[in-house]
Amino acid sequence: MEEYLNKSKISGDIFRFLYLNKQSSRQEIAQSLGISLPTTTRNLNALQESGFIENAGEFQSTGGRKAIRYQCVANSRYAIGIDITRNHLSIVLIDLALNIIDNTRLRIPFHESHDYFCILKQEFEKIVSKNIPDRSKLLGVGIALPVIIGEDHKTVTYATVIPLSLNIYNFFSDYIHEPFLFFNDANSAGLAESWKGDYKDAVAYLSLSSSIGGAYMNNKMIYGGSNNRGGEFGHMTIIPHGKRCYCGRYGCLDAYCTANVLTDFTEGNLKEFFDILKSGTNRGIQNIFEDYTDYLAIAVNNLRMCFDCDVILGGNVGAYMADYIEDFREKASKLNPFERDGSYIRVCHYRTEAAAVGAAIYYIDQFIQNF
């Protein structure tokens, strides 16, 4: 049966149709793909016997025999995403439906050392052995890093947030033996959001964490630019000759809107900052947030002017913006000469682990497209 599937383009078309449409009947599949009912039935049976699709019950009858619903089996394959930041390590296991099956997050400073990678390997193996008895179902491992990645997704072309050597891919390969590739962390988070929100049109994602990054996507595909530096929104100049950025230049968004700008006043605790802000008892904290959102509004308006699309606020700060989104929309709209409706500004779906999920999505997407 596997041999039959490998040779059948129709099976691939049916599988992708079900994946994109969640559930469908034999008749809908045949009509949509332009294939006969007997051919559809034969391929559905092959897919079902191989464990890739399943019977999900019956549709409500509109008269006559009820049609069977088919859907993809989410746990027929898995992918793992690893997000490495300056001070944290996150590992996420997702299935084909992007459900987070298991995850772990450790506070551990990154260091390119045997000790660090032994911890990474140990946590990785815990998740795999606990959840995937058949290791052949693991498609691969996406690794999100706060760096600029080369086109081969194995080389790092620019790294200042965390120090990485030129042979970092080989270093990883001593500890991870499944297929793996590198991805920019903010691009990965943006990809996760576009898939989760099922965005068919263009969307810009702004990651507001210990550094600022982002992604511009259209139909769930990232635009990387000529040098894979697309989405480096943190280095837009918003205040000429302003504060010094870690890149060495002045006035970058990163110098004004990282999470650290807020947590510097609560000993590194972002939750505490927003708890105090929500209480309304500390005028100083309110002023800090007011200044923060002033600068953020400039950046969001710039993105709207450049791309004329929805803008998603993500990252650590974005996860807290739901309570303040209406006020922020109003603030950003005042900068816009064309519209007063700020509903294009959205809050992220993923409150945590977006970068890890997005890095894993690469392998899910490859599996679906090449089925």
Automatic annotation (TrEMBL):
Matches recorded under InterPro entries: ATPase_NBD, ROK, WH-like_DNA-bd_sf, WH_DNA-bd_sf
One Pfam family linked to the record: ROK
SUPFAM superfamilies, sorted: Actin-like ATPase domain (SSF53067), Winged helix' DNA-binding domain (SSF46785)
Organism domain of life: Bacteria
Keyword tRNA-binding: no
Alphabetical keyword list: Carbohydrate metabolism, Xylose metabolism
Keyword Amino-acid biosynthesis: no
Annotated family: Belongs to the ROK (NagC/XylR) family.
Function recorded in the entry: Transcriptional repressor of xylose-utilizing enzymes.
UniProt-listed PANTHER family: BIFUNCTIONAL UDP-N-ACETYLGLUCOSAMINE 2-EPIMERASE_N-ACETYLMANNOSAMINE KINASE, ROK (REPRESSOR, ORF, KINASE) FAMILY
Protein name: ROK family transcriptional regulator
Species whose genome carries this gene: Blautia intestinihominis
